[in-house]
Design brief:
- By secondary structure, the chain is of the alpha/beta class.
- The protein has one domain (about 5-200): Aldolase class I (TIM Barrel, Alpha-Beta Barrel), CATH 3.20.20.70.
- About 40% of the residues lie in helices and about 15% in strands.
- The protein has twelve helices and ten strands.
- The chain has helices spanning about 5-10, 25-30, 40, 55-60, 95-100, 115-130, 155-165, 180-185, 200-215, 225, 230-245, 250-260; strands at about 20, 50-55, 70-75, 75, 90, 105-110, 140, 170-175, 190-195, 220.
- The radius of gyration is 17 Å and the shape is globular.
Length: about 260
């Protein structure tokens, strides 16, 4: 691995751990509660996360270039929640624009098991081929669309391994409550946990994040469970403590309560 690739990964994952903040939801959801003004949403959260995951449109229109956080650029899309199938994605961003924006990594969704499996895996492989020439890491996002019943260890392990085999340097996937360690053990590159739909309480979030970190995940990519929470700053601080300070569920809850 070349110096530039290693450097970008070290910035994204200080000491090998990471808290990514996704605000890319509008690329398929449109206006999203809490992201009406993305720049204002993330401003008070900046001290707590390690990198921002967003589209080039929001990056250029709403994110201060001096904000100081590394950017993971969403580079797949072209579908919506009112369309026929969320899995029917294409690549949206050229390598020239990726370089022009000076991002630290890019993110591509894959929909394994869907009608568009080959297409989305080809998107991932194509982006890896282009980004390797410039030392830019690619994060594969193992999306499942509306088929949430697929989130078991066997399926997620299959997805993560295929993404790693195609050259992803990081894989974002869902946590599962049974055999999640097998997902991690079968993937030769770092695995980051997605948040998915908003949880019922902060305790639910702390519990699955702690469990996943203990079983080998290197970090989290959580958005709605932070910026849609009534107390986003305490949530971000508590999650930062779990990821970077190895806080327990009880300690995270105490941090949340104290910060609130």
């Amino acid at each position: 691995m070349d110096w530039g690739m290693k450097n970008r990964l070290s910035v994204l994952m200080p000491q090998g751990r990471c808290f990514f903040m996704p605000i890319d939801h509008g690329y398929f959801l449109g206006p999203t509660r809490g992201l009406e003004k993305p720049g204002e949403t993330i401003r008070p959260l900046l001290p707590y996360f390690d990198a921002l995951f967003c589209t080039r449109g929001v990056l250029r229109a709403a994110i201060d270039p001096a904000q100081g956080k590394p950017i993971i650029l969403r580079v797949s899309g072209c579908t919506s929640t009112i369309g026929k199938d969320l899995a029917n994605e294409e690549l949206t961003t050229s390598i020239e624009d990726i370089i022009r924006l000076n991002v630290s990594a890019v993110g591509v969704s894959v929909f394994i098991g869907s009608e568009y499996e080959k297409q989305t895996l080809a998107n991932l492989a194509r982006m890896v081929n282009q980004c390797e020439d410039y030392g830019i890491p690619v994060m594969a996002v193992t999306a499942v669309g509306k088929e949430l019943d697929k989130r078991d260890a066997r399926y997620l392990g299959l997805c993560c391994r295929i993404c790693a085999e195609l050259g992803a340097k990081v894989v974002k996937t869902y946590w599962c409550d049974k055999d999640f360690e097998k997902v991690i053990q079968g993937c030769p590159v770092p695995v980051v946990m997605a948040g998915g739909p908003k949880c019922n309480s902060e305790l639910d979030v702390f519990e699955f994040v702690c469990d996943g970190m203990q079983k080998g995940a290197v970090g989290i990519n959580l958005g709605r469970n932070v910026w849609q929470h009534p107390h986003p700053i305490p949530m971000a601080r508590a999650l930062q403590a779990i990821v970077h300070e190895q806080a327990t569920v009880r300690e995270a809850q105490a941090i949340f309560n104290d910060t609130k």
